[in-house]
Amino acid sequence: MSASEPTTQPAAEGRAGWAWRPYALTLPALILLAAVIGYPLLTIVLRSLSEPEWGVQNYVWFFGAPINLTVLQRTFAISAWVTLVCVVCAYPYAYLMTAVGPRVRLMLVLCVLIPFWVSGVVRTLSWVILLQDSGVINSLLRSVGFSGVRLIRTQTGVVIGMAQVLLPFMILPLYSVMKGIDLRLMRAAESLGARPSRAFFTVYLPLSLPGVYAGAMIVFILALGFYITPALLGGPRSTMLSTLVQNQVLSLLQWGRGGAMGVVLLVATFVLLALAAPVMRSRHREAGRR
Amino acid sequence: MEMKPLTRVLLGLVCLLVAIWLVAPTLVVVPMSFNANKSLAFPPQGFSWQWYQNFATNPEWSTSFLNSLKVASIVAVLATVLGTLAAFGLDRMKARPANLLRMLMLTPMVVPGVVLAIGIYAVYLDTKLVGTLLGFVLAHTILALPFVLIAVSANLEVFDRRLETAAASLGAGALTTFRTVTLPLILPGILSGLLFAFATSFDEIVVSLFITNPYLKTLPVQIFASITRDADPTVAAVGTILLFATTILIGGGMLLLGRERKGRL
Q1: For chain A, how many structural domains are there in total?
Q2: What would the CATH number be for the domain defined by B58-217?
Q3: Residue B239: which of A25, A125, A266 has the nearest Cβ?
Q4: Which CATH number does the domain housing residue A281 bear?
Q5: Confidence label for B164 from pLDDT (cuts 50, 70 and 90)
Q6: Is residue A175 part of a domain?
Q7: Membrane spanning segments where (chain B) (predicted)?
Q8: pLDDT per residue over B26-63, tens digit each?
Q9: Is A52 on the interface with B (CB under 8 A)?
Q10: pLDDT reported for residue B218
């Protein structure tokens, strides 16, 4: 460890010359990251700009064709629906997790985690079985008088399947925030004369919003890039952007166009992440302070 | 908070429905796997073991299962080593570069699967890695790395570094300190990282669908192909086997942990 080693670490650390060592430890992971994530993504960006020739023609094509815009809009709409369904279902569930005893809580946690025990593809298969026209759900609906409801190969079916896969990502952050809410605040509000519903809307709900926001962002971002569930549960009228990308590249061998679509999806994802990051970071800091 | 009985009942009911919605699709494969007919229509008819037999004897299924085991085992070790090293590095860096590098290393979790898949596919076509063991291992390792990083980092955060100083002051070398003090204390994080990495690789489908070829298929690729091709209940049998294997593993782990904790008290 020569003294000429440029170090920013003050000697107070006791091993000033070793400041480069942490960086060396991360190097193998960073090299792999550059080779298997960085380089491929760069390849896609370059292809979107260079195939069949240099220019932005692929992006002009993407934003010029109504069918693409329809799919783009639908991708956002489906993701928004999935997020909404997740929020509505996860909120009472996470709340109950904070309100029950340890035994029931363990049961509730298990119900959230059990879906992870089965491979994602198999879970989607289960939804194919359940949602098909002769499936359980349709039989149930028929027995209560709703006949001819189509679920598989429709947008509704895709939303049901995707929301079930993504629900844990909503429940867990929501629960971690709700767990930290001091319930005495509610009692205080009620002792000051607020009705339970008013206490809930003015005290509890605002305090739980960071959890809703974090969970909703995660679910929405993950939903945007979904591929397997829409591919198996959806039909031609519920195609999402991922399927279009796959189609351009594998079936039509249009690397430029597929690449441009991929870049659009990637940019949308990162813009949303950038929007979400400051809020989540401040929440993290608060949690650290506690 | 005090709730009216009606609110309480309603809340319980809603949560019961959500719980059913979460769990029922996981269990549907179990009755389907004993179907006597070659169909995926619910409810299943009759009873037979033939789909389990098919899984065990049909080379398409057994080979892809073994491939998945092989890939996931290598990935688990590789991702755990790389991820643990990186977690240590980040832990000992100054906050600003550490946060930046951590964010960079977590990107595989948020990049949309298909975008990553076409990128890797493009590179693999050029480098002749499509349908190779090395190709699968590299792609899965980078996807598994964030999970190891998160698990080990969480453990390092609560690890008291003064223990290392204490060991060093008592004359232990860097390697001895690591082996006898640091490693045993962060082992839970490393082990859960290993488990997550294995599961990530074993379950990976989107990138795998692109970089697969007839010579090398993993189990999820085979399942996907089977679902899109015909209604073969063998997939249900595979799903049931995986469900039971995971249940036994997790249940066993919980029992062991519980016993250990009790033993200590």
Answers
A1: 1
A2: 1.10.3720.10
A3: A125
A4: 1.10.3720.10
A5: confident
A6: yes
A7: 65-88, 100-124, 130-152, 185-211, 235-257
A8: 888 888 889 888 877 777 888 888 899 999 899 999 99
A9: no
A10: 95
Q: Tell me, what's the pLDDT at B261?
A: 56
Beta bridge partners of B213: B216
Least-confidence region, from A1-5, B68-72, B120-124, B257-261: A1-5
Check B115 against A265: CB less than 8 A apart.
yes
> Is residue B148 within 8 angstroms of chain A, CB to CB?
no
Structural domain containing residue A199: 57-289
- Cβ-defined contact of B88 to A22 (cutoff 8 Å): yes
Two tokens, residue B49: 């073991």
Can you tell me the ipTM of this complex? 0.87
Shortest CA distance from B21: residue in chain A? A164
Residue at A13 is within a domain: no
Q: With a CB-CB cutoff of 8 Å, which residues 62-121 of chain B face chain A?
A: 82-83, 85-86, 88-94, 97-98, 101, 104-105, 107-108, 110-121
Per-domain boundaries in chain B: 58-217
Residue A28, CB half-sphere, CA atoms under 13 Å: how many? Answer: 16
The three-state (H, E, C) secondary structure of chain B, written as one string: CCCCHHHHHHHHHHHHHHHHHHHHHHHCHHHHCCCCCCCCCCCCCCCCCHHHHHHHHCHHHHHHHHHHHHHHHHHHHHHHHHHHHHHHHHHCCCHHHHHHHHHHHHHHHHCCHHHHHHHHHHHHHHHCCCCCHHHHHHHHHHHHHHHHHHHHHHHHHCCCCHHHHHHHHCCCCHHHHHHHHHHHHHHHHHHHHHHHHHHHHHHCCHHHHHHCECCECCHHHHHHHHHHHCCCCHHHHHHHHHHHHHHHHHHHHHHHHHHHHHHHC
Decide if A42 is inside a domain. no
Lowest mean pLDDT among A132-146, A147-161, A198-212, A267-281: A132-146
Contact (CB<8Å) A22/B205: no
Q: Which residue of A has its CA nearest to B123?
A: A40
Q: Mutate which of B18, B33, B85 to disrupt the A interface (most A C-beta within 10 Å)?
A: B18
B104 bridge partner residues = none
Cα of A22 vs its chain's centroid, Å? 31
Nearest residue to A109 (alpha-carbon basis) of A168, A166, A179: A168
Which residue in chain A has the smallest CA separation from B119? A40
pLDDT digits (tens, 9 = 90+) for B202-231: 999 999 999 999 999 999 999 999 988 887
**Mean pLDDT on A244-260:** 92
Min distance B7 CA to chain A CA atoms (Å): 10
